[in-house]
Amino acid sequence: VKMVRITERVVNTYFAKLYLSKPGKNEIISVDVRPSDAINVANRCEAPIYVSKHIVLKDAIRIGYGMGRAHGAKATYDVSLDSAAEGPDSVTEEFDLVKNMDIAVREERYNDAAKFRDKLLKLRKSIHDH
């Protein structure tokens, strides 16, 4: 098992692909599978699991700051997204800035947190201007 990709959601159904190869061979084949089965196989084989960025943005991530979080709860934006092949995109950059800002606040590095906040605001403004 090379990897699993959760590829899309249609209405309320998710779709996945399992990528396989024979030991010592370069040829990779993909098989359509249910996401639950794919995740189970990947977990047992210690293979990476990738999720389409569109699914993550629509279904999994809800960025929340400030008073809405319970004390000690894991941040909802504590994720890492793969960058596009042509380089980092604005979504990945935004998540990295938010994550770094959160870490700086937890470590009481408030000047660093303010710098990350300023970069985040500048990035969001540039996105909305285009």
Structure explained in plain terms:
- The protein has 130 residues and is α+β, with helices and mostly antiparallel strands.
- It folds into two domains: 3-59, Bifunctional nuclease domain; 90-129.
- 43% of the residues lie in helices and 20% in strands.
- It is built from four helices and four strands; from the N terminus they run E-E-E-H-E-H-H-H.
- It has helices at residues 35-45, 53-60, 90-106, 110-129; strands spanning 3-10, 13-21, 28-33, 49-51.
- Strand 2 and strand 3 (28-33) form a beta hairpin.
- Helix 3 runs antiparallel to helix 4 (110-129).
- It is elongated.
Please state the overall shape, judged from the principal axes of the Cα atoms.
Answer: elongated
CATH first level of the largest domain: which class? Alpha Beta
Please bin the fraction of helical residues.
40-55%
Largest sheet: 4 strands, mixed
Strand order of the largest sheet: 3-2-1-4
- Whole-Å distance between the termini? 41 Å
Give the number of helices: 4
What is the β-strand count? 4
Question: Which labels suit this protein?
Answer:
130 residues, alpha+beta, Bifunctional nuclease domain, 2 domains, four-stranded mixed beta sheet, 4 strands, BFN domain-containing protein, Bi_nuclease_dom
